[in-house]
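Entry for 2-phosphoglycolic acid complex. Fields follow.
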Amino acid sequence: RLAQLNGLTTGQLRLGAVTTAKYLVPRLLGPFCRQYPQVEVQLNIANRSDVIRCLEDNRDDLYVFSQPPDHLDLECVALAENPLVVIAPAGHRLSGQRIRWEQLAQEPFLSREPGSGTRLAIEDHFTRHGWPYKPHMTIASNEAIKESVAAGLGIAILSRHTLIHTAVGNLVELDVEDFPIANQWYLVRWRRKALSPAAQAFSSFAEMQAPLAAPAPPQ
Ligand code: PGA
């Protein structure tokens, strides 16, 4: 009977997610869409500052952020851990040992663009530790950063979620003191906004699945 009711929920679900959450959200949408086949999903992906604009303009029903803006009246439900890790090309001279960030200070550092939540979390972490933040190159895509690191252009700090489908032997996660940077994914909505039945169904579904497992470090 429940399945029947689930099957009857119709309408649109508009989800806004920061770029890095595209590795997480499909893991929720897969089982959700099987359970609610009549719900039409629209998934919008952009960096954190653009998704905040969508939130302020009330364009989507629900959002996925790792750092929800704190100046708005929001309800945030934790979904999963989002550790930010240091990656280097496979075979990097410092792989396989515990190192300090200072040992990497001479490496060219590839960074996401201003407006990225990943970048913001890294900047906060560096400020807390009194480390200078001097990216060598700014690249506005997690995937392009991974390719650039694999091609030997430098090192980077990315969500471990971005590494799940990386070919073995391409990249390594370095074991650096004070890393990973601890972060969380949240499902976010306006506290006072009534949700459509489809959005309500997704919100309850996601809460029931939480916490989703965070990926293990690559081998
Ligand atoms: P980003 O967001 O894709 O904008 O870096 C990730 C996050 O908010 O942590």
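NOTE: The mean pLDDT is 94.
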